[in-house]
From TrEMBL:
Protein name: Lrp/AsnC family transcriptional regulator
Keywords: DNA-binding, Transcription, Transcription regulation
Keyword Electron transport on entry: no
Domain HTH asnC-type: 5-66
Cross-referenced PANTHER family: ASNC-FAMILY TRANSCRIPTIONAL REGULATORY PROTEIN, LEUCINE-RESPONSIVE REGULATORY PROTEIN
Length: 151
């Protein structure tokens, strides 16, 4: 059983979520620890699996992706594994979740323009039904759930 997060661990994670490039020293000043102590806590959080890694947030528009789409995908009978492989191999899918309900997958696509939808989704049509919604705007991007300290 893994050790529970304490208030300092939660504060460190929240600081890093807001600024992944914050120095250990700056984080330490905010949480009342030395830089090396913060580094040790981060190593422990990573070793115990609380922190899986660190990433970069990109402005997709700057990369030429002006549109995003949500795609619900329902594989035809016997096509589940092939469709999953196709999703994994199509680099425009930025995320994909297995879900309950009528569809098996909900995925998010990055597109330069709406015309690309046909090129990307056409290979799926022999193996799955797809239902697509264009994302008009995002209320918020991915964020942390509350990091409450369990008693």
């Amino acid at each position: 059983m893994s050790k529970l997060l304490d208030q300092t661990d939660c504060a460190i994670i929240e600081i890093l979520d807001g600024d992944g490039r914050a120095s250990l020293s700056d984080i330490g000043k905010q949480v009342g620890l030395s830089g090396p102590a913060v580094g040790e806590r981060l190593r422990r959080l990573k070793d115990t699996g609380y922190i899986l890694g660190f990433g970069t947030r990109l402005d997709l528009r700057e990369l030429g992706y002006t549109i995003q789409a949500q795609v619900r995908i329902k594989p035809r009978s016997g096509q589940l594994h092939m469709v999953e492989r196709m999703i994994q191999e199509q680099p425009r899918f930025m995320s994909c979740d297995r879900v309950t309900g009528d569809d098996c997958y909900v995925a998010r696509l990055a597109l330069a323009d709406v015309a690309e939808l046909d090129d990307i989704l056409l290979p799926f049509h022999d193996r799955a039904e797809t239902h697509t919604s264009i994302v008009k705007s995002s209320i918020f991007e991915s964020r942390l759930p509350p990091l409450s300290v369990k008693p």
